[in-house]
Amino acid sequence: MAGSPLKNTRRRIWTEAITEALKKRIPSKDIVEALTPIAEKLLDKCMEGDVSAFKELADRLEGKATEYVNISGEVRELSDAELHALAARGSAGTAGEEPSEETPTSVH
After folding, report:
1. Residue 71 counted as domain residue
2. Residue 57 in contact with residue 46, Cβ under 8 Å?
């Protein structure tokens, strides 16, 4: 199974929650029949030019677009002392840098 197990768990949780809510509102219908009016409203919004509705429809039909991130910079091993210093000051900078006055070293 691809992806994060937590992400897949969240998807199932939301699917189950929505399914239960639909059953409570429309107990006599099957899930597809209950979702049909919602799908029709989504299509109406798309036809009206609602970009966010169209994005939602495209995501449902084709899946969300893959986002690629390019990361550049120096990669090197850190000593135990450098790792300890980073952990001690949190995310206040990168290895070898001292925190500036504008950079907080702790969260309040």
Report:
1. yes
2. yes
What b/e readout covers 19-28, taking b as 16+ CB neighbours within 10 angstroms?
eeebeeeeee
The mean pLDDT value for 21-35 works out to: 80
- Containing structural domain, residue 58: 1-87
Q: Around 33, how many Cα atoms within 13 Å sit in the side-chain half-sphere?
A: 7
Q: How many angstroms from the chain centroid is the CA of residue 1? A: 18
Residue 10 forms part of a structural domain = yes
In a domain? residue 108: no
Look at residue 58 and tell me if it is in a domain: yes
pTM (predicted TM-score):
0.44
Higher pLDDT, 96 or 74: 74
Over residues 36-92, the pLDDT tens digits come to: 888 999 999 999 999 999 999 998 888 887 888 888 888 788 889 988 898 888 755
Candidates 30, 51, 32; CA nearest to 42 is 51
Number of domains in the chain: 1
